[in-house]
From TrEMBL:
Signal sequence, renumbered to the chain: 1-22
GO cellular component labels: endoplasmic reticulum membrane; Golgi membrane
Membrane topology: Multi-pass membrane protein
Protein name: Post-GPI attachment to proteins factor 3
Length: 342
């Protein structure tokens, strides 16, 4: 009961988190003055940007800005305004640090320091590691089923949830790919791809959870379970992409589906005799603790490691635990079915 209360507390708390369009740093008069001056002069202090030089008709003097950029930054699309925002933010934060003030958010984000044009390098690194861990987990699952466990006479696996876990693995790898891209450069397109991928993954995770926990094996029954959830997830993705990119609403939808999964798996571990149920408990506990970092949301240490990056780091062992259970489940179900057939 204590675990369920903790999960419920996280869910209720997430519903109370407001979604703000402006941040404290955006309204800072010193920051705004720096931004206005930078867009006119193309300089922040002694640092000037070639692509901020415009003629009287508003066209760049030396050609398009992206032709002036170093090769490694061209694909990042750092334009005059984004560079002015970044360097004015750094200059203002240096002033605030000297005065003993704490960091504040600018345009909804903490003041991160770029590395080779990458906006949040630590989050990108952890996303890439999670992607690698997902690929390793999915590949080991594939090898186990097709080369280590016995197959049916028609070469199909005995495990009834093979296809579902393959889809889950593909969606998970897709999510971590776009997570790395989004944290590398936050623009509208990468943000939509990141949010949409997250919703698709969490939504399918809920479908998979219901089908596995309740042992739904009949195809017609699976369709009846999956169809309404797919409709909800699809509608939400269309809403985010074509109507309003609402961060607050998206957080609530993902949290609701995520909490539902944890509760269902938690109840299953109590009533089942599965030999690897302890791994599900471990997954639930670690994932619940990792959510604390998202709620706390502390500023980035030295401009690099924030709460979200730590959350991504926690997903690495969580992914390992998840796929470890899936492999055990495949072995357990295959063994059970073979015993029944004898």
């Amino acid at each position: 009961m204590a675990l369920y209360r903790l999960i419920l507390f996280f869910f209720v708390l997430s519903l109370l988190v407001p979604s703000l369009d402006a941040s404290e740093g955006d309204t800072d008069p010193i920051y705004k003055a720096c931004l206005d001056e930078c867009e006119k002069s193309g300089c922040v202090g002694e640092r000037c940007f070639q692509h901020c030089k415009f003629s009287s008709d508003g066209k760049p003097i030396d050609g398009p800005w992206y032709l002036q950029e170093p090769l490694y930054q061209k694909w990042k699309q750092w334009d005059c305004r984004s560079d002015c925002q970044y360097h004015c933010m750094l200059a203002r934060e240096e002033q605030r640090e000297k005065l003993g003030d704490k960091p504040v958010k600018y345009h909804g984000k903490w003041p991160f320091r770029r590395v080779y044009g990458i906006q949040e390098p630590v989050a990108v690194a952890f996303s890439a590691l999670s992607l690698a861990m997902q690929f390793h987990g999915w590949l080991s699952f594939f090898i186990l089923l097709n080369y280590k466990l016995p197959l049916r006479p028609n070469k199909r696996t005995y495990y009834e949830y093979t296809g579902l876990w393959h889809i889950y693995g593909i969606l998970a790898m897709n999510f971590w790919l776009w997570s790395a891209v989004f944290h590398s450069r936050d623009v509208e397109l990468t943000e939509k791809l990141d949010y949409s991928s997250a919703v698709a993954l969490v939504g399918f995770g809920l479908i998979l959870t219901i089908l596995r926990v309740f042992n739904v094996r009949d195809e017609a029954s699976r369709v009846m379970v999956a169809a309404p959830l797919i409709a909800i997830v699809t509608t939400h993705i269309l809403y985010l992409n074509f109507y309003k990119l609402d961060y607050g609403l998206n957080m609530k939808v993902c949290t609701a589906m995520g909490v539902a999964q944890l509760v269902i798996w938690g109840v299953w571990t109590v009533v089942t005799s599965h030999p690897s149920r302890w791994k599900v408990w471990l997954f639930i506990v670690v994932d619940s603790l990792a959510v604390l970092f998202e709620i706390y949301d502390f500023p980035p240490y030295r401009g690099f490691v924030d709460a979200h990056a730590v959350r991504h780091a926690a997903c690495i062992p969580i992914t390992y635990i998840c796929w470890s259970f899936v492999r055990d489940d495949a072995e357990f179900r295959t063994s059970t079915l073979l015993k029944k057939m004898k």
